[in-house]
Write a structure and sequence with these properties.
With 383 residues, this protein is α+β, with helices and mostly antiparallel strands. The chain contains eleven helices and 13 strands.
Length: 383
């Protein structure tokens, strides 16, 4: 039997015995089964109702309460117990439905936002994602990281709108990105594939802001920003720099309206440097004073050699800033370069195929014998 209804009945008994008020306190016994409906099943509610009825009968008999008044009190207790039992049954059904919805949402999240490995070749990766609708588990923010023959490629984006339509658009973007990332050697061509797909499937007012980045294996970082918040580049010494695009590009799905194509940024990416991609749910999070969360300052405070630890500290600080609950979806993806080796996607073997070698380095390389190769299979050490 739940503790709170028992406590309520006990308090009523103590007050009645101490005050000797008779019928005055007996109606309060109905609070026992009513409270039981919020925490217990039908059996707990029935037990609380029987306890209240037995207690009311005992107190009424002790004080010599007229039979008509005592029957009225017991009938009221019976009615409250029945109503509370029904409420308990309905609450149990809602909880089971909610559990099923959570299970489906978790499966959808795993299919849509596939887990990102902690280590991809010479890179270490960490991701933190929070949906504003806590029970939904998924929302309109998206992220993905794909190892390809052209180096690793990643995307972080934000779909305009909320709910299931936003989730459907996010699924479309991620599906096209994962396919194009393997097929297209040029990062701008990957963005073009996504743009064409969205132009065919989105409404006139729908769009997706996104940053698509890649590490093609030449010791450089490639970034294409389509109307999204600028990524943050964290140097080995901890300095934070926002990678502002030279020319603002429209979000994905709106290129036909503006007639302006995105541009490719190419910059060095050395060992020890990190790239942070995020959505506006992070930078537009406000505290009680309506102040935005200072992401760059937070990164400067918490940046370290462990991406997972850095994002955990940032996420905790973000939740503290907003008072414990975000009002928009928020995604963070942190990529750290650990070594100068560059991964090449493909089946393991004693040598690197010439075509893959040309793709990664960007220029033809002379063939070498297997005895001359000192790098691990599937890897190329850059000069």
């Amino acid at each position: 039997m739940p503790a709170l209804p028992v406590l309520v009945v006990s308090v009523v008994v103590l007050v009645d015995v101490a005050g000797g008020a008779g019928m005055v306190w007996l109606p309060l016994l109905a609070a026992g089964p009513a409270l039981a409906a919020s925490t217990n099943g039908p059996r707990g509610v029935l037990g609380a109702g029987l306890l209240a009825a037995a207690t009311g009968t005992a107190l009424g008999t002790m004080h010599g309460t007229p039979a008509r008044d005592l029957v009225a009190v017991l009938c009221a207790l019976l009615a409250v117990t029945a109503a509370s039992g029904l409420a308990s049954v309905l609450r149990g059904r809602r909880e089971r439905v909610l559990a099923a919805v959570r299970s489906v949402a978790e499966a959808a999240q795993q299919a849509l936002l596939q887990p990102v490995p902690e280590t991809v070749g010479p890179f270490r990766v960490a991701v933190r994602y929070s949906a504003a609708a806590a029970e939904a588990r998924i929302g309109g923010d998206l992220y993905a990281l794909v190892p390809t023959p052209h180096g690793i490629r990643l995307i972080v984006g934000d779909v305009r709108g909320k709910g299931l339509p936003a989730v459907g658009t996010a699924a479309l973007v991620l599906g096209v990105f994962r396919e194009a990332a393997h097929d297209e050697p040029d990062l701008l061509a990957v963005v073009g594939r996504i743009e064409r797909s969205l132009a065919r499937n989105l409404g006139p007012d729908d769009f997706v802001t996104a940053v698509v980045a890649g590490c093609p294996g030449s010791g450089h970082l490639e970034v294409v920003n389509c109307g999204h918040a600028p990524p943050l580049l964290i140097s080995a010494s901890g300095e934070v720099e926002a990678l502002e695009a030279d020319l603002a590009a429209p979000p994905l799905g709106l290129r036909a309206l503006s007639g302006q194509a995105p541009r490719l940024q190419r910059l060095p990416f050395a060992v020890g440097e990190q790239l942070l991609l995020y959505t506006d749910g992070v930078t537009e999070a406000r505290d009680h004073a309506r102040e935005f969360y200072p992401l760059a300052d937070g990164v400067a405070r918490h940046a370290g050699d462990e991406p997972a630890r850095t994002l955990t500290a940032l996420h905790d600080e973000l939740l503290a800033h907003v008072g414990g609950r975000l009002h928009d979806d928020a995604a963070l993806l942190l990529l750290r370069k650990e070594s100068a080796q560059e991964p090449v996607s493909g089946p393991p073997g004693p040598s690197v195929p010439e075509a893959a070698l040309h793709t990664v380095t960007g220029s033809p390389q002379p063939a070498t014998s297997s005895a001359q190769r000192v790098t691990p299979p599937g890897w190329i050490r850059m000069p």
